[in-house]
Amino acid sequence: MAVTPYSDAGLLPSATLQPYGKEILKYGIGQLGTPIDVGALTPKVAGPGAFQQKGAQRLADMYGMGDIQRDATGMVTGFQGATGIAQYQPYLDQISQQQLLDPTQGYKDFMSPYQKEIIDTTMQEYDVQAGRGRQAISDRAMTAGAFGGGRHGVEMGTYQSESDRNRAALLAGLQGQGYNQALQQQQQQLANLQGQATYEMGLAQEGIAGLSALGAEGQALEQQKLNQLALGAQQGYQLPMQRIQDVANIYGGIAGAMPGSPTQQFQPTPWVTGIGGGLSAGEIMGMFGSQKKPLYDSQTGKKLV
């Protein structure tokens, strides 16, 4: 039975395909050596947009927190220039200036000048009428011949006392009416300022809510864009390797279907082996001489006796 000289040898791909295999290997090594932009592959988080930042600043202004300080990513790092309760401050100042919380002082700004004129005019008229009454008493005493007498003096004193009481009561009534009206206006002014401040705060909060809603939509859109950019960068990184893998798969399929080139294991030269294996001097010399009889069988490779 003949022995195949290459039975212990492997196979190389077809000589036709070997250059392509080298190219695939070269491109693969080159791709592995390409620097990777990790930042482009890493997913990112969208920061607050312009509407959200505006809404946040308006909210900070409302509560007197000052100007919002942000870092490069848009995150809040602190505040600068706090002013206290900024949105309420004008109303607090007006309440303080008008002393609207003090019922003994706050009403004075609401005392109408017309009320004073009415009081003065009324009291003047009263005094005129009181004077006429005193004159009438004197006239009657003069007619009766009792002017300057005790009866005249008693009647005049009684009249004057009643007139004074009536005058004081009239003046107190007029002043009390004016005070009550001014006090009501004071309380109404305080309620108006509180209501206006609350109303403005409500409008401001509605505006902030609208800005926040618009900002949330913009932020969501920005986040989608960042996600797609990261995904695109990841696909761009993987695509060359995928293409190399696809080509390698095709190459491997074709190489497996085509006959390969045998690779023979290393066989030392017989005379070198003989030198180290104890060949006789005649055999060694015969390798260099003109031998007519071959030493090895050309078919089996075995040594001929």
Outline of this structure?
This protein is mainly alpha-helical and 305 residues long.
List keywords for this structure.
305 residues; mainly alpha; two-stranded antiparallel sheet; disordered N terminus
Radius of gyration: 59 Å
Approximately how much helix is present in the residues? 55-70%
Query: What would you call the shape?
Result: rod-shaped
Q: How many runs of DSSP E, i.e. beta strands?
A: 4
Spatial separation of the terminal alpha carbons: 18 Å
Structure description:
There is one protein chain. The chain has 305 residues and is mainly α. It has eight helices and four strands. The strands form two sheets. A two-stranded antiparallel ribbon has the order 1-4. Strands 2-3 form a two-stranded antiparallel sheet. The radius of gyration is 59 Å and the shape is rod-shaped. Mean pLDDT is 76; it is low at 1-9, 264-269 and 271-292.
